[in-house]
Queue: 2 jobs
Job 1
Amino acid sequence: MNFKIDKKDLYQSLNVIVNACASSNTMPILKGLKLEANKEKGIHLMGTNLEIGIENWIPAEIKKEGEIVLPAVQLKNIVRELSDEKIEFTADLEKYRAEVNCENSDFFINGFNPEEYPELPDVSIPIELEMPAGKLKRIIDEVKFSISSDQSQPVLTGILMVIENEKTRMVATNKYRLAYTKVDNENNIEEKLDVIIPGITVKELSNLLPEEGTVKIKVNDNYISFNFNDIMVVSRLIEGDFPNYEQVIPDKRKSRIIVKKDYLQSAVKRASLIARNDSNIVNLKSMDNKLVIESESSDIGSAHEEVPIQLEGENHKISIDASYLLDVLNVLEGEIYLDLIGALNPFVIRKKEKENEDYIYLIMPIRPGNQENE
Amino acid sequence: MNFKIDKKDLYQSLNVIVNACASSNTMPILKGLKLEANKEKGIHLMGTNLEIGIENWIPAEIKKEGEIVLPAVQLKNIVRELSDEKIEFTADLEKYRAEVNCENSDFFINGFNPEEYPELPDVSIPIELEMPAGKLKRIIDEVKFSISSDQSQPVLTGILMVIENEKTRMVATNKYRLAYTKVDNENNIEEKLDVIIPGITVKELSNLLPEEGTVKIKVNDNYISFNFNDIMVVSRLIEGDFPNYEQVIPDKRKSRIIVKKDYLQSAVKRASLIARNDSNIVNLKSMDNKLVIESESSDIGSAHEEVPIQLEGENHKISIDASYLLDVLNVLEGEIYLDLIGALNPFVIRKKEKENEDYIYLIMPIRPGNQENE
């Protein structure tokens, strides 16, 4: 195995692939990535921790074909520090040992037998569809912060993605809050897709997806793959039934508050500086043309913030976890709606830009009795 | 107590003072800082954890004088997030409770009795001298990385500073390496100053010292203070005798290597990517017009680097801790000298820019027998 490759190309690719390699002390070979030189196709890099896999093709001047598994993090770090633009890569395929040569630097890196490295699953059937990469990234970002970290309910540790006819929906919830988003598909899609994608995969996708271009999505019963640029991300799907989210979303409201996201965000951020020393609760109270935001910590003191609003309907009070509100304010812009029914009913945040139901974020309130300071 | 103050001025000052406040769970009042409003002098902020203290004066429109102790980190975070340029500050000096008001934000912060807060020691006698701030910062940075973290030998956890006649010297060592620097004083200084400044203080000074202006230094038996801009840093001194560093510095050499710092740094950085998986040892070997740098890790593999050099004297081999060499290369520029006597003698790095003894960095070699891979 022998090839010459651009340092930049190789480093960029390693930087992507390394995210799919195991980082903990499981089988040492899973901390590696598989590197294959193919005269027709170029260099193929692939990493997987058995949950998620990423592969990438890059061009190179290949003199001799072959494949080897090398420790991913170490290879990435070495390539990053090399001085020159061109790297010569040679591997002894019997000893599983690679030589990386660049100007006056020579590295010998111990590898593993590529035949012992797992293959990525083939996800070529039964469903195949396309979506603009920027749109997929946006809807992931709009819901991913609501994924649960509680491993005892695996279905909540992922995002539900439903693609059906003209619409794609994404939902994530940890039972105390829920984020829901819906976008139009470019084309009417005949197959119905209804899968739960692991949190680790959606976070990786959010980092890797470009703003431009198209993503090809393929799904079978157990796996999903995303293909964009020369990168393919393959992930295991989470088995099980996602909770019926539709029944949680209120179909009515008693009041609607219209508020500038920037004002609300700054005020809640400040109030949470006090709240986070205690239970992280902020109390919201509409008073006609202003929203009062208050927090209290027995140690530190208290905060009182006022934000100008427009109110439709009656005045309300509600207590919520400040971080749940800040998470959604990070992904919204301009004016937003806060919809209220009562202090014990879900608190709903929507985008004002579209009156329809495209984005819904719901926070379960904290009962007044559960607070120390009420 | 009541005053109006610029948000920016107050935040900058809090950001400095907070470094002197206790961060761990000792007495809660030590996590606070003392804030005093004085109509003639302005606002005085002071924090101390009893090891180090920092104070600062800032201007404000003071309506009512007074003093209070407030939690430092919380106050800093709140001021950072405030929206407006002008902050109104009011304190109830009987309840030790402050109100911070800014536009639509109102914070009530619980404080402490300022009479229970420690005073900074008075360091007005017996020695007082001046030094350019930029020069003090430079010599601290040239030696501070050699300070020991081993608390069982307290004198090595600080920098020895000796000011005598026309010279100021600084030395730090952890027994396995030593950094020594010497600069000319602006004026001949009559008093001899010979103190050990704690590592925590020199690191704080390095962050705070400006490039321009003058530092006033005052010392007594137990404390040292540094005065620059409107900031004063006061620190306890470390008691005890610093080891006799002069006897460790070799007065001869068998070979001198002249090498470009940048080349050596890049090569050692790369070799250390392998070395750090093992004992962090790199082997240096001069071969007439090149320096070969090698490292090996039984797991990962090996690195071989070559750097062009000029050699005066015979060829040598030596094994050292890669991080010790990288630390000094971070603070040197241009061409440097590597002076060698033998594989078991100290390895000495000097600046080429001045042939004199102004900067000496010494690394104790690792005996070949202590290496796995030799």
Note: The CA atoms of residues 135 and 141 of chain A lie 10 Å apart.
Job 2
Amino acid sequence: MSDAVPDVARAEIVGAVRRALAKHGYARLTTKKVAAESEKSEAFFFYHYDTKDDLVVAFLDWATERSAERLAAIDSDDPVTRLFVACDVLVGDYEDEDDRGINVAMMELLSHAPHDEAFHDRLSAYKRSVIDELAAIVSLGIESGAFRDVDPEATAAYLLMTADGTTGAVMALGMTDVGEKVRERLFDYLTSTVLADGVSPPAAFA
Amino acid sequence: MSDAVPDVARAEIVGAVRRALAKHGYARLTTKKVAAESEKSEAFFFYHYDTKDDLVVAFLDWATERSAERLAAIDSDDPVTRLFVACDVLVGDYEDEDDRGINVAMMELLSHAPHDEAFHDRLSAYKRSVIDELAAIVSLGIESGAFRDVDPEATAAYLLMTADGTTGAVMALGMTDVGEKVRERLFDYLTSTVLADGVSPPAAFA
């Protein structure tokens, strides 16, 4: 009955699933452990969602929306700023417990996608939507003359893969030195390969 | 008693763990499911390894060695060829069931690293060793004049993150169009940013 879950209950539930996933991972998740991260009883969770996987799908839907909203909310009309900030958001911040927990949980759910159609379909749609969003920014930059005439889709896919790759080494293993180097190389790539000659990166990324 | 496991038994066991991980994932793995992928009995597995996690650690050690051997076995003294082939090996081949199963299993185990010290330590050492291996190739290329004067460690980390990122979208979700685009961008990056002016990519990657 997840379609009919009221917004307030859904926010409470998703917050608890998020905290429980960060603490225990998906493999060891139980509805009991989710309820332990909330003021509500286990019965409250079962009233709204039939199974543990329904809870996890609600989390996935929320995490997907969160990411889409963060990309859409980038406060600039300038494609240069939008692209740098979008890459920064996608890499995430190791010091931010939410970013860390959500990215590692999404990676764990990705590893279950070959065995789980609901996860597979949602995660595929999510990856596709992020690539589309990045490709739209790249297309805007090409039209405005701020970017070179790169392939928007291929560039978007390439940038997303690099950001995705940091989830394992940086977020899950804590190799923050690797994270810093990759972030620097990634911004250098944008400057040297995507920005048109004479266009500078935003001040915050220079 | 995993230190004392004879090579033949170890190979049998690791093969079964690998097939069981590809089929069921780590979360749903049991020693019974591992034994079902082998001619041996469950007792055989318990004789050599006490727990499911000991079996998985044996798999991790094997997968790490496999990767190191594949990188070390690249049949060329030319740093240009070595770098392109190494990146190709790290991205892996979606059509190869072993590559797919192993990469997705490693990603799942990465997601457990925050909760599991044995996984964390092995996976950190593994990532570090791949970065070192790539950085050594980059340093060789700089010395020989075939590469630009890039930062070997940062370049190595950046290349590995891009390769790692494809595990989710390509290997787990089957987005093979994304895989092809990223591979093309990655080789283009090597050509435009790492190779010195006038140095061409190997024929197989041009």
Note: Chain B touches chain A through 50 residues (CB under 8 Å).
